[in-house]
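S., here's the first fold you wanted:
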Amino acid sequence: MSPRRRVQPGEQPLLPQGMPKTSLWSRMSLRQWKLPRQWWKPSRQWVMPLAMTLAVLVAAGAITASSFILVNHRKHHELAMKEVDVLGFARSFMTSFTSLDPFHANAYVDRILANGTGDFAKQYRDKVNEVLLNVAQAEPTKGTALDAGVERWNDDGSASVLVATEVTYKTPDGKQTIESTNRWVLTAQREGDQWKISSLQQVI
C-alpha cells in the first residue's frame, strides 16, 4: 500500500467534497428478471419430440428424393433400351433393303414386305411387280448401314430414324467396284413385339 498523504493547508483535495447527485434512472425501482440457471440449454421436455419430428421430416424427404431419382432413372433406362432396339432394327432393315440379289428377287420382296406396315407396305405391294423386275435386272449389291440415330420420338410411339448407308457393287464387266453413300429417313412403328417400317424416304 502507498503511504497516506496529508493535505496541506490551502491545497485542493484530490476527491470532490460532495457525492454526485443520483440520476432519475438510479432512483427508479426496476424489476429484475431472474433467468433459470443454464437457461440457454433446451429443456428435455421438448427436445426429444422436436428431434423426432426433424428425423421424420428428413427421412420423408430422403424417401421422396430417392423415389424420384429411381423413377427418373428407370424412365431414362427404358428410353435408352428402346432406342437401342429401334436403331438395331433400322440398321438391319436398311442393310437388307440395300442388298440386292437378282437371283433371289422374290425372297428379297417377301423380306421387305414382312418388315413393312402402313403406307410403306401399301405402296410396296402396289409396285411389287415393278420392284421384282428391277431387282432381277440389277447387279448384285452389298448394303451396309454406316450409322443411325433417332431423330425424334413421335406422339404415337413411332420413331423417326436417320440412317446412312453405303452400297457397293461391281460394273457389268466386273472390272470396277463402285461405292455409293446415301442417307435415309425412316419411320419405325412398333407392332406387338416387332418394329416395322411405315415410311421410307431417301434424303438428297
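And the second, which I think is the more interesting of the pair:
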Amino acid sequence: MGINAKARPHQKDPRVPFGLVFRRIHPLPGQPAPEPIRLRTLILLRWVAITGQLAAVGAALAIGADFPLAAVLAVIGLAVALNLALTTRPDRRISAHEAAWQLGFDLGQVAALLALTGGLANPFALLLLAPVTVAATALPPRQLLALGAATFLMVTLSAICAQPLTFGPEGLVALREPLLVGHWFAIVIGAVFFAGYARLVAAQVNATSDALFAARLALEREQRLQHLGGVVAAAAHELGTPLATIKLVGAELADELAEALPEREDLAEDVALLRQSADRCRDILKSMGSAGRDDLLIRSAPLTEVLAEAAAPHHGRGAEIVVQPAPEPLIVQRDAAVIHGLRNLIQNAVDFAARRVTIETGADRRDLWVRIADDGPGFPPALLPRIGSPFLTTRPRAEDGRSYEGMGLGLFIAKALLERSGARLRFANGAKGGAEILVTWPRDMIETGNRAALGPNPEILA
C-alpha cells in the first residue's frame, strides 16, 4: 500500500481495577506503580475499627471486666493519631509497600489490644482477621504473604504475652457467663465490619466496571476511526498515480479528437466531462489523503497536530480554542488512547469556558507537558483532591446552562487513558480563575524521532 510504517503492537492495560484493587499485569517501562488501595479507604476502615474498639471497651466495662484501661486507651490513641496525621492528605497515591505497612500497623495495634485484654480468650480476637482480609483483596502476593506471616506471628505473641482478663462482682450486667456478652458484641461488630467492607468492594466494583466499560468503548471507537482513516489515506495515495494517467490520456485524446474529428462535438464534450470528473476525483483524493494521513499505522506526529486532532470536534461549540506551541518542535507517539484522553479534557474545558480555552505545550530536559486552561468557574476547591474518580461529578453547571452528564466519568476515562501512556495529571484552579489541567509525560515515554507520514499525492497535470 506504499506505507513505510508498521502497526503498533496491541498493549493491554497494565492496571486492571477490581473494586479497591489495581493489580499489576504488564507494566510499561517507567510507568508509575499502580495504587493497590485508596488511602481514603484505609483511613475510613481504621476509623471503623477504632469505633469498634471503643465499643468493645465499653462492653467490657459493662460486664465488669478488669483490664489496664489506660494502656488500652493509649493503644487506641496511636491509631487515632495515625489517622489524624493521614487525614491532611487523604487522596495522595500510596504504594503497595506503604499500604502493607499501614495494614501491618493495624494488625500490631489489634494484637496489642488483645494481649492487654486476655489474648485469644478475648472474644474480639477474630478482629485480627480484618487487616489480612483487606490485604487479600488489595495487595500484591509478596506483600500479602508478608502480612500473612505477620498475622501468624501476632496471633502467637498475643497468646503468649496475654494478660488474664478477669471479671469483678460489681459488673453492670449480672451474668453467670459474662463472656457470652463479649462474644455477642464481637460477632455483631465483626459482622458489621466484614459486611460493610464487602459492600464497599461491591459498590466500587460496579462503579469502576461501568467506567472501564465506557472507556473501552470510547477507545475502540477511536481506534476504528483512525484505522479507517489509514485505509482511506493509503487508498488516496495509491490512486493518485493511475488518476494522473487518466488525466494525461484524456488531455492527449482531446487534442487528437480536435485534429482528427473536429465535427464530433459530442465526443469532445465526453472527453471534457471525463477530464472534469478526473479533476473532481483529484480534489476528493487530496482531501482524503490529508484527512487520513496521520492514521493509526503512523507512529508519530507533531504534538501540535495531535492536539489539533483532539480539539477538532470541539471547535465552534461556543469557546475559542487557542493552541500555544512550544518553541521547539515536539514529535510524540500518536496513540489513540492519548488522543481520546486529551479530547475528553478539552471537552471538559470547552463545556465550562466563558469564552476561551488555552492549550499550552512545553518541555524541559526530562518532561514534556500540556496545560489545558479555561476561563470558566473552575473546579470546586473541596473536590479537587477527588477529581478523576468515576463516582464524582466535578464541575458545577455553567451560568449559561452549558453542561453535560457523566463529567466525573469523562475525567476518569481521560485520567485512566493518559496514565496508561505514562502521564501524570494535576487538576487545579488558575490564579485568575478557571480550571487548569496539567498533563506531564517523561520525554522518553512519549517523544519519538521525526518520522514522516505519507507524502503528498503525486501531482496531477492538467
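Why I say that: The CA atoms of residues 119 and 162 lie 5 Å apart. The radius of gyration is 33 Å.

Talk tomorrow,
H.
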